[in-house]
């Protein structure tokens, strides 16, 4: 039960922070907001502010802010705009202001992630900086050495030619992230040696002792830096930059239909949350930070049902200097909804397969 409660708290906190960003930006630009809801379903508690009602609802799954003129989400409370001045509705303010309101939720998710990671790093007292892509040593007799790769070579590119995907890693962590899910496939490694670039095809070898595929390259040792209240935010940004690169790497592959088997939905997130709780408070809070960043990036995707897609629509309308037709917007909304539902079903299916 404690796992389930912490799982719900995790998801709710991320969504509430996201919606709070929309609320603050909307109020700055004078948009009338009738309700800020924490949770969904029937009301449990409410507090009426100057004009906004703050509501706690029964189901602790997300939340929303009801803005005048926002008609995109049928699950949210609709605002009666009959007595609201037009310039206090979403359609009644400048498009650039609407864009900022849409982006505010994403920004809040990123801010939350940075704050949490910074505090966790500060609590830990040190931060391990991932080594760059210079190879410290090559294991004798393993595929990398057999292919001709040498110590002090700097990896500048890794690619799976059979899948048509590649990456220019900034650290060994990037290389590990790129190989995740494809560890047994032939890998082309491009290195820089004495100012020249050279490419080698490496076929991973299964190691029964470690129960994994290996290629036999070793990185430099991780450098640990002392942490204080000032540099903890720099280290937090460094860590989240790596997570962001990993997310975009995965998204790029998903667009090409690669890595669908690695998708994870609510069941997988619940399992990951349980594992994080078992590992301690720091792991649990890092989980919140990484998921908050994921939610922010996901909402930035150019799908019309998401914040990023709504920004794209506003930019298109600014270029053509007229609103898109309601029919066109409805079509785009339904299409993007179908994409998201499909991904959700695939992710849930993969979660269930992993359970058994």
Features:
356 residues, alpha+beta, 4-stranded antiparallel β-sheet, two-stranded antiparallel sheet, 9 helices, 48% helix, 21% strand, elongated
Short summary:
Helices cover 48% and strands 21% of the residues. It has 356 residues and is an alpha+beta fold.
Note down, in words, how this protein is organized.
- The chain is of the alpha+beta class and about 350 residues long.
- The strands form 5 sheets. It has a 4-stranded antiparallel β-sheet with strand order 6-5-7-8. Strands 1-2 form a two-stranded antiparallel sheet. A two-stranded antiparallel sheet has the order 3-12.
- The mean pLDDT is about 90.
- Helix 1 (about 1-30) packs across helix 2 (about 95-125) and helix 2 (about 95-125) runs antiparallel to helix 7 (about 280-300).
- Helices cover about 50% and strands about 20% of the residues.
Strand content: 15-25%
Strand arrangement, largest sheet? 6-5-7-8
> What is the distance, rounded to the nearest whole angstrom, between the alpha carbons of the first and last residues?
22 Å
Total E-strand runs: 12
Overall form:
elongated
Residue stretches low in confidence (pLDDT < 50, at least 5 long) are none
What is the string of SSEs from the N terminus onward?
A: HEEHEEHEEHEEEEEEHHHHH
Can you lay out the helices and strands and say which pair or pack?
Elements: H1 2-28, E1 33-48, E2 53-67, H2 95-124, E3 126-129, E4 137-138, H3 143-147, E5 154-160, E6 165-167, H4 172-179, E7 187-193, E8 196-202, E9 205-207, E10 212-214, E11 217-218, E12 223-226, H5 232-255, H6 266-279, H7 281-299, H8 307-320, H9 326-355
Antiparallel strand pairs: 1-2, 3-12, 4-11, 5-6, 5-7, 7-8, 9-10
Helix pairs in contact: 1-2, 1-6, 1-7, 2-5, 2-7, 2-8, 4-5, 5-7, 6-7
